Input
Amino acid sequence: MIGGVGLFGLLSFRKNYAMIFITSASLAVIYIVLYKFLFIDQFNQNYVNQVLEIGLKPTSQLLTELFQGLATSFNPFIHMSNPNGGIINYGIYGIGILNVFLIIFLFLKNKLTETEKFIILLGVSGIICSYFVQYFYGIDPLDYRLLAPFTFPIWLVYLKKVFEIFRLKTYIIGALSLLSGLAFTWLSKGFYLENREEMSTFLKSEKLENSPLLFYVDDMEDLEKVQIAELISTVNPKVKLTFKPQDTLQKTTITTYKVLRKIKIDKNKYQ
Output
């Protein structure tokens, strides 16, 4: 956002309000520098060296994730894709990309006010900076959750332009978006109470409902295993994750295999 504010000031350099934006961005940059030296360094002087790492992900992967993130963020109805792939993703990505082209078309065809240009520039600069920061700082893949603060201002201007053309019919988009969200929420409803009862039965049978526990996980990205650990914590909160294979030899260490061998956990394919 700081970059967007400063860039807007530079692009509007000949206008009387340009220095307001340039000065605001400059003060923000100065604040960040002071914050680093006067606050962060007081706790960890090696912070920057520890968190910055070049070449975390290849460009091919980052571009793919950016495409998927933009396609779902600008899909008015479904803001996520099927992580397992499948033909449904072609429809999800297709609607999102077609909407992106429509946004570009409307912005080029209709004259934008200075305020609208500023709002759009904030959104675009935020998306661009979020992409490039991934080259040296580890963050989650850019998805709807991370891109929403920057796609939201673009959506505001876009829907304003659509409203100028279709007037009240524009609200159909919002209604369909809410309906699709309600349908997805209903389909993705979990079996939390049933699964918790099964887990409680398992822990009691193993006489582990009150004991300090370890749950072995070899990959934090494996959400199925992590969710089982979370389910255990709803019955016995004294559970910690372990990444050491040798810990599985202990009776108080639980693994996914031990759990699924004795109980069945209901899964929802829409979650």
About this structure: DSSP finds eleven helices and three strands in the chain. The CA atoms of residues 36 and 42 lie 9 Å apart.
